[in-house]
Amino acid sequence: MRSLLFLQACLAAVGVSASNVDLEENIYDAQAYKPRQLMTRQIRPAAPVSGPRIGGPVWKPQIGQKVQVILDRRVAQLTQFSRVTPEQADIWDLDLFDTTKQTIDVLHANGKRVICYLSVGGSESWRPDFLTIPKSDLGDVMPKWKGERYLNLRSPTVWRLMQDRIKMAYDKGCDGIDPDNVDPFNDDFERGGGFTPPLTEADSVDYLRNLSAEAHYYGMAVGMKNAESILANVTDFIEFAVNEECATYSTDEDGCMLYVPFLAKGKPVFHFEYVNVNSPSLFSRGAPSIQSVYKNWANLSSADILSYYCLQNNFGFPYLPNSTVGAMFSTAVKKLDLGGWVMYCDGTYAETPTAQTVGGPDRELDPGWRGKESQRGGKGKSGGLEMTSPTGPQAGGSPSGGLLGWLTGGGRDS
Questions:
Q1: Sequence spans of domains, the chain
Q2: Whole-Å CA distances, 107 to 77, 78, 82, 87, 385
């Protein structure tokens, strides 16, 4: 404080108003070759947080917090001296089995919260507890996901397995759980997961209610991924929602507007959209360009893609909220492989150092192996805005090129 007052006095002595100099937000880079170059002060580390405890308060994430999600790889081993990247990510969504307690402890020491991903409605043949699942509790194969079959959500054996996994999350210090595949009723074959009788929406609601009660016992928050058709029925007993590509699928009723009542209750939506990334050249200081993973969106500019995915310009689509509501979504733009790269709506981007998953193959060689969930009305990547569609939007009248012209110029698939 004394040095700051001294600097203000010196500025006043030479006739420079301190109000014209941003002393808090920028500092002079004395090592820079060019004089008077400003560099932004690094984000101040958040205060350390502690993990959950039995009988303690349930952690409640807040609207607007930034999130990083890494599932196909694991965060490279962190130590107390590690720099956590990206610094601006408040919440980290990481795989329960692949993430060590040490990693979670370091993230907590840096003021970060950790959500642990686990599949609660699908078997995963590479998990260490897979062989404990009776064959009678394994349903249809998930055609888009290697090594996965639907689980019988009504089974006491499956429930005991999930209790063990939730206890594992608590023992590792997870602040919340991200339960995937909660909607076998919405499977590709319309067979309710392949069970008799078929699994229903009511089964999923009851199952998630039990999962929530179990996690809350340990002081952990619970979310729900996609499964928008039951969102209204589970809102009261979950703390957050996870959505994949509601902006991409805004051309039908599965738009982001379905999450507005959830946000109105003060509960956050962690929203992920997927892109291909073209890195800048070695000698360029520019940001990488991003491109939709769908070929019929391939000619849209980076600016259009970011503003659209971040719900800041709905370009006339009826199922997207206005920019004020859109800003309430915690949006992160990711590569399909769900590795370390992430971009936020303010244009900042980073890449978290990652390593091969523990005891498993390097899944980055098989991009999207877990990545985005396919259970969105059976569409996945094969319907709606088809990844391999030969028809693409025509560049047009948008100030930054592409999307508006596509809407008005007939380039949109019917």
A1: 1-41, 59-375
A2: 11, 8, 10, 10, 37
